[in-house]
Amino acid sequence: MTVDTRGFLDTAGDFLRADPARNTVMLTVTEDLRVTAASAGTLFGWWQPDGEPVTAAFMHTPDYPVMLSTASVQAAAVLARDLTAGAGAGRRIPGLNAGQEAADAFAATWRDRTGDAVAVSRRMRLFRLGELIPPRPAPEGTARLAAETDRDLVARWFEAFAHEVGNPPRQDHSRAAAGRLAYGGITVWEADGVPVSVAGRTRAVAGMVRLGPVYTPPELRGHGYAGAVTAVVSQAALDAGLREVVLYTDLANPTSNGLYQRLGYHPVEDRVMLSFAPARHRLRFIRERTRGFRPARRR
User: Fold this and answer.
1) Is residue 209 classed exposed, middle or buried when 0-12, 13-18 and 19+ CB atoms within 10 A define those classes?
2) Which domains are assigned to the chain?
3) Separation of alpha carbons 35 and 30, rounded Å
4) Do 262 and 15 meet the contact criterion of CB atoms below 8 Å apart?
5) What does 22-36 look like in DSSP terms, one character per residue?
6) In 52, 69, 228, 238, which residue has its Cα 20 to 30 A from 101's Cα atom?
7) Which parts of the chain register pLDDT below 70?
8) Neighbours of 160 (CB within 10 A)
9) DSSP single-letter state for residue 169
């Protein structure tokens, strides 16, 4: 394991770039760290038994779940062991983002070694753009790249999006907005000159870009703004010559899943997000839920 982004990419980079769609998160996060020369305390690692080629990799950014690539059951179980007793011991691991089989193997080892309660917090689907199908008819308005004057608005909308989907609450959304603005990574849809929807995108890496977040305030939904701004960002990625344009959806949200498929996005893989909670928290939860109840008297 390492916190050295360059060292991680030197070893696992070829593995990640061989399938940029499935490895979109690790590739785009490391690209941001490389470009900005920042260190977010992110821990990296890879699975390379006996000097063989790398066949799995992981990343953990504080406050977020561990992100695990496609991995064997054995690799997932060993990772859980190493994060409790190896170089990763002492880090607060709130959960895991992985394929189902790897997630099951990781969770079983994690539960055995920590006693934590494990629960499914979200099920995600990765989509990849095929042939773009712009919405017809297009909604009222036009798209434009966000400017510095949009920073506060974008930060508020990023925060609202994070709250809706259940992302960690301590994110610096103003900093995230500024980072996206620096490379033209935010597009706004305006109606009558007023911003009504926003779509973000990552930096391009390995011929791939990931869209998100896409957000429209609740009171402005139902007009097609999200589909329109997503189509614009998707077309811009294609025009830039990118081979892979991807995005994630929450499987519990049929609206977004249907929207992106109508735009020409096709399923690639499903992932599960697990959350971990110490057993004492689980017991406290049970006590709180049962507070006020008394045992029945014997007759």
Assistant:
1) buried
2) 5-124+273-286 (no CATH), 131-263 (3.40.630.30)
3) 9
4) no
5) TTHHHHHHHHHHHHH
6) 52
7) 39, 86-87, 170, 280-299
8) 16
9) T
Joined tokens for residue 219? 């009171």
Residue 170 tokens read as 């301590």
Segments in 115-244 forming alpha helices (H): 151-165, 173-182, 225-239
Contact predicate 223/140, CB 8 Å: yes
- Look up residue 73 and give its amino acid: V
Reading the block at residue 125, the tokens are 């689907």
Strands, E, within 43-111: which ranges?
43-47, 56-60, 66-68, 95-98
pLDDT by residue (tens digit) across 11-45? 999 999 999 999 999 999 999 999 987 767 899 99
Q: State CA 27 to chain mean position distance.
A: 12
How far is residue 95 from each of residues 126, 209, 219, 244, 256, measured CA to CA in Å?
Answer: 19, 25, 32, 28, 24
Of the candidates 258, 266, 260, 254, which has an alpha carbon nearest to the alpha carbon of residue 233?
260
Beta bridge partners, 277, equal 117
Enter the tokens of residue 94: 């709130």
pLDDT of residue 289: 37
Which DSSP state fits 149? Answer: G
Evaluated on CA atoms 145, 34, 95, 246, the torsion sign reads positive
